[in-house]
Amino acid sequence: MEPLQEILARKQELRRRLRAVQSSVPQEWIEAASRLVVSQLKSFPPFRAANTVMCFVSLPREVCTHELLQEMRREAKNVVIPWCESTELRLFRFRNFDELVPGTLGILEPAEWFRTAVDRVATPEELDVVLVPGLGFDRRGGRLGRGKGYYDRFLKQLSPRVPKVGLAFEWQLVEEIPMLPHDIRMDWIVTEKNIYSCH
């Protein structure tokens, strides 16, 4: 078994490599490719059938989800976004961007006065599909995040029936993501070119 320090070092090197690629990709390409990722996602049967979808609010240079969030609302899906509280992800029922402010790591999250409103707090049990960001993925569902562990801790709480779907660009797919025992694998990865089953 590979020593822990070696796995962590390989993860850090892969993060460095993928961030270098990420910073070199033109914003116009990201926007155009993001629309193709969303188009692929809309053809994905579990997404089409889902009533309640958890979707991240994208950072610059990630697959852009801002239009997707608004489209899902228009299509009468229940839309849930994650936000960071201390070391955990909390869930919030999204309605519009006016309710969001920059929070942890610069990610848009609910303004403080909305966070605990009874009708806005969501739970993992309600989710039909979870859309997950990442710096990199492999075809076996391995995911490389930013190293804080927010998503791994959260995804452990999900029922196995809930598909975990990574949204990524093709250049984010690598041969192998170094995995630790607590790292959670994706079930599917959707890119601008394809939908990959990780089973």
Automatic annotation (TrEMBL):
Keywords: ATP-binding, Ligase, Magnesium, Metal-binding, Nucleotide-binding
Molecular function GO terms recorded: 5-formyltetrahydrofolate cyclo-ligase activity; ATP binding; metal ion binding
Superkingdom in the source lineage: Bacteria
Binding site for ATP: K11, Q12, E13, L14, R15, R143, L144, G145, R146, G147, K148, G149, Y150, Y151
EC number(s) from the headed UniProt entry: 6.3.3.2
Record-linked InterPro entries: FTHF_cligase (IPR002698), FTHF_cligase-like_sf (IPR024185), NagB/RpiA_transferase-like (IPR037171)
Residues engaged in binding substrate: V57, E62
GO BP, one annotated term: tetrahydrofolate interconversion
CC cofactor: Mg(2+)
Pfam families named in the record: 5-FTHF_cyc-lig
Catalytic activities: (6S)-5-formyl-5,6,7,8-tetrahydrofolate + ATP = (6R)-5,10-methenyltetrahydrofolate + ADP + phosphate
NCBIfam families associated with the record: MTHFS_bact
Family listed: Belongs to the 5-formyltetrahydrofolate cyclo-ligase family.
Protein name in UniProt: 5-formyltetrahydrofolate cyclo-ligase
